[in-house]
Every structure is written in C-alpha cells, then in structure tokens.
Description:
The chain has a domain at 49-132. Helix content is 40%, strand content 16%. The chain has eight helices and eleven strands. It has helices at 18-26, 28-36, 51-70, 85-96, 109-129, 184-197, 223-243, 260-269; strands at residues 14-16, 45-48, 137-138, 144-146, 151-154, 159-162, 168-174, 201-208, 216-217, 274-279, 284-288. The protein has a five-stranded mixed beta sheet with strand order 3-6-7-8-9. Strand 7 (168-174), helix 6 (184-197) and strand 8 (201-208) form a beta-alpha-beta unit. Helix 2 (28-36) runs parallel beside helix 8 and helix 4 (85-96) packs antiparallel against helix 5 (109-129). The radius of gyration is 20 Å and the shape is globular.
Amino acid sequence: MITKSKQEYIKNAIYLSYTSLNDFLKCPGSYYLKNIYRDPKTGFRMQIASPYLSLGSTVHDAIKWHIEMAGPLRLASSEARQVTYEQLEGKFRNLWLKYTGKRGGFSTKEDEASFGKRGLLMLENFFRNAKNLEDKHHSIEFPKYPLLDNVILMGNFDFIGEKEDQTLHVVDFKTGANDEKDPIQLYIYAILAEANLEKSVSSASFWYLDREDKPRDIVLDPLEPKLEWLKEKATELKKAIGEGMWVCPSTRSARSGLCRDCRDYHAILDGKGEFQFTDYRYKKDVYYLPK
C-alpha cells in the first residue's frame, strides 16, 4: 500500500495532475501555455471554452451534488432517496447557466441544446444505476502526494467507495464519446486514495455515463511501479521547467508549424479570443475562440 506522507507547505511547488501530465507528454509547448503562463494583468492562467469541457464540468458537478445529498446510493426505491431525479435535473440546469453561449464554447444554440440533452441523458443513466456504487464512500478535496521535493501529485476524485472488506473502489465518471486507452488516470487516483485515506485500493473503474449502466473495472496492477514512473516524469518536468525548454514537437515539421493546442493558445495571446469570464476556483481566465 502507498503510505501516507507528511503534508507540509512547499514554496513555489509544482503541481502535477493527470491533465497537466497529459499536456506535458503530448506537447511541452502546450503544457507551458496551459499550466505555467500567467496573464501579466490578472496573474491567472488561460483556458479556451469548449463544449466538451462545459458538458463534463456540469455533469460532474451535478453528480457530486447528488452524491453529497442523496444518502445511501443502493436504495431500490427512488422515492426513498433524499434527492429526486427532478431535483438533480434542476441542479444540472442551474449549473448549465454558467456555460450558455460563448461562455461554454458553443457557436450556435443548436450545438448548446445538443450537448445539454446529452448531459441530461447521462444524469438519467447515473440516477437510475447509482445503486451499482458502494453505499459507504469517502470525500476529500484535491488530495495530494509529494513525488519529489517540490513536485506534488494532485487530483480530484469523482467517487471513492468503500467495500465490505474495507478496501477502496476508485471510480472516474466519463462523459466523452471514446473509451480511455490508458488507465494512468485511475492509477493516479488510486495512489492518492491510498496515501490520503490509508486504506488499500482493490479496484478501479471508468464509468462511461453515456453508454454503460455501471462502472467498468480495469485490471489493477501494483501501484508502486506506476508511482516510480510518475516520479520519472516529474523529474523530466522539473528539468524542463528549470531549462525553460517548451518546444512544440510539431515545429519539427515545416508543414504543421505548431500543434492545434499551441496554435489556439497563441491565438489567445495574439488577441483573437473573446474574454468570457474568470473562474476564480481554478484561477483561470476563460476565452471563446472563434472557429
């Protein structure tokens, strides 16, 4: 089991999440633009509004609210629950207001309506099948684990259930159309769960909310080799930050010049984006980029 580490304040710490790690592995240039660069006026990072991000954020936030409010998830009768589906749908619609129009990356009302309907279908599926999750579950905000002296692994759990044998089940809710090819995200959550809750993780699952009625387990290999791999990547990231080398791999090809992410974020820097709002929770300025 991954043992709990001492939590202490680290000045100028580098926080590594699944998303930022994925950015770094795909393109160091886009990693810099998304995670390191700060607007000199606001001190916040940039984010480009996206229908897929808006859908995912709203569905996840609505489900999180349901889990916190509903009580035991295995109650067979929906009438016995503390939260009805009508209340859950109302919560989703209220959260959706934050992402209407360009704020959510939508270029047309038809696109916004289509994504909204997808979100409601996912919520209906979750509500109908939440009984497939464990009754006892844990909640922890942004768990952390020190990988190196100043590189901190962090994440944000969707669901951590506790089984009858007191081991943990880590579940990540998915709102995208494609299956995950690499389960490293679940391994990161499993490491964080063991280190922060001091209980063993015995299973980990993706729940594809738009097409499956229960979580789908992965084959969970030992966590220690995954942790060592993460430390290697953290070392590479720390070196890149020290050297300031943020090269987009696509620059090696004269045809492409920059990858799509780099092109889009450079467009924001060039003033081609439309500022929409500031997300103070994540300290990001959100822009709409015309297509």
